[in-house]
């Protein structure tokens, strides 16, 4: 954000002191451009989540699966574009996992309602995401430079904290999305899936995802650099 250090050019010529000190200028939040292609793709994935859930609950499984594939494709493409053209933003590190978790939450509830996902596994997935969401709200609040107003809190062009996904968290997200996609594909195909169904490979996948869900949630507690407070970094 641009700030005027002097009232006029004449003030500068007259040797007057700047209106804002260098220290104060350094402490002011810097806005970033959040309207990038990767962020727009991520936002589209966020919007698609409830639509996929609606289609799933109303037995439109082929359409739900197609839109789910689109969401997965944007998840791959947005990160590649951001890295390729240096379009990474702090808000992107927040809304990207938010979009993934929203999609996961909506589909976990939808598939559990249809009896396609075990209730204990659904509770485990949702419980982890609720705890991480509460932690994100807390870190956003404590890291936001004053004044801490509701408007500034939801202004994501004011970066204050950055989330660094842990290694196991990335693996867990991939496994969860794989399980959801697998389950949706079985519902779209229908019929007896034999070894690929709940009595075989799909059932084993439930236990694997349950294990990585607990592990990844704990990793944010014991991993030192999982959350970085940007305001603290600036002050050093």
Low-confidence regions: 1-13, 16-21, 232-236
| Morphology | globular
- Count of helix runs: 10
Number of beta strands:
2
Mean pLDDT: 81
What is the CA-based Rg, rounded?
22 Å
Strand content: under 5%
CA-CA gap between termini: 21 Å
**H/E element string?**
HHHHHHHEHHEH
Question: Could you say which structural class the secondary elements and strand pairing correspond to?
Answer: mainly alpha
| Largest beta sheet: strand ordering | 1-2
Report on the biggest sheet: 2 strands, antiparallel
What is the helical fraction, as a range of percent? 55-70%
Can you tell me about this structure?
The protein has 236 residues and is an all-alpha fold. The model is unreliable at 1-13, 16-21 and 232-236 (pLDDT under 50). It has a two-stranded antiparallel ribbon with strand order 1-2. α8 (167-189) runs antiparallel to α9 (201-222). The chain is built from ten helices and two strands; from the N terminus they run αααααααβααβα.
In short:
The chain is mainly alpha-helical. The chain has 10 helices and 2 strands.
């Amino acid at each position: 954000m641009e700030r005027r250090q002097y009232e006029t050019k004449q003030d500068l010529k007259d040797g007057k002191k700047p209106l804002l000190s260098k220290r104060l200028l350094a402490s002011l939040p810097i806005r970033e451009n959040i309207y990038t292609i990767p962020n727009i793709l991520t936002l589209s994935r966020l919007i698609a989540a409830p639509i996929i859930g609606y289609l799933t609950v109303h037995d439109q499984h082929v359409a739900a699966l197609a839109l789910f594939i689109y969401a997965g494709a944007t998840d791959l493409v947005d990160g590649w574009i951001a890295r390729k053209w240096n379009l990474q933003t702090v808000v992107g590190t927040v809304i990207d996992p938010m979009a993934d978790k929203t999609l996961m939450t909506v589909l976990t509830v939808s598939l559990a309602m249809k009896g396609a996902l075990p209730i204990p596994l659904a509770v485990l997935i949702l419980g982890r995401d609720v705890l991480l969401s509460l932690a994100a709200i807390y870190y956003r609040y404590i890291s936001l430079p004053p004044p801490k107003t509701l408007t500034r809190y939801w202004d994501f062009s004011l970066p204050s904290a950055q989330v660094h996904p842990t290694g196991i968290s990335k693996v867990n997200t991939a496994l969860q999305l794989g399980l959801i996609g697998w389950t949706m594909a079985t519902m779209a195909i229908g019929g007896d899936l034999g070894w690929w169904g709940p009595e075989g490979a799909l059932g084993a996948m439930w236990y694997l995802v349950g294990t990585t869900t607990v592990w990844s949630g704990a990793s944010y507690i014991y991993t030192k650099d999982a959350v970085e407070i940007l305001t603290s970094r600036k002050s050093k």
